[in-house]
Write a structure and sequence with these properties.
Layout (H helix, E strand, L loop, with lengths): L2 H36 L2 H18 L2 H4 L1 H52 L9 H4 L20 H10 L1
């Protein structure tokens, strides 16, 4: 055989092999997609109940000791609970740090405003500081210093109008 003929056969065989690989990849992707679509929540529950029944029926845990499995589950659940608590604590600490930073910035701004222009620099006194509350309860004492509302208070007051 000539070299050219052998080279053509090899190229054809390579193309056929690539085609088979491509088809196999496509079929595998289609199978994976069909498998994921087939596992609806109801089927998952039924499969869990059926497998639980079959495992309980074969009773392998009675020979090993079922209490060990319960201990392990209890340990794992308490570990997950402690991890969640640690994450929540860390988030709360971060929030507290941010709130403290914002409070210090607000305090600096308030002290600079008080030094530069006094209470007049905040504009007219808030209505809540001068008049009684809407529900009829008395407002703050008359000798209480007039201050600008905190951003949260201002937002609440605006949203109540």
């Amino acid at each position: 055989m000539r070299f050219e003929l052998l080279r053509q056969r090899v190229e054809r065989a390579e193309r056929r092999a690539e085609g088979c690989v491509d088809r196999a990849a496509d079929e595998r992707a289609a199978l994976g997609e069909a498998w994921r679509r087939a596992w609806s929540p109801a089927r998952i529950v039924v499969a869990g109940l059926l497998s639980g029944f079959l495992i309980g029926r074969s009773e392998p845990l009675s020979k090993v000791g079922g209490s060990r499995w319960l201990q392990m589950l209890g340990t794992v659940s308490s570990m997950l609970a402690s991890l969640r608590a640690a994450a929540a604590s860390e988030d709360a600490g971060d929030s507290a740090d941010v709130a403290a930073q914002q409070a210090s910035v607000a305090a600096e701004a308030a002290s600079e405003g008080a030094v530069s222009g006094g209470p007049e620099s905040f504009g007219p006194a808030p209505a809540a500081a001068v008049a009684a509350h809407r529900d009829g309860s008395p407002g703050p004492a008359a000798d209480a210093p007039v201050r600008a509302p905190a951003p949260a208070e201002a937002a609440t007051e605006v949203s109540e109008r």
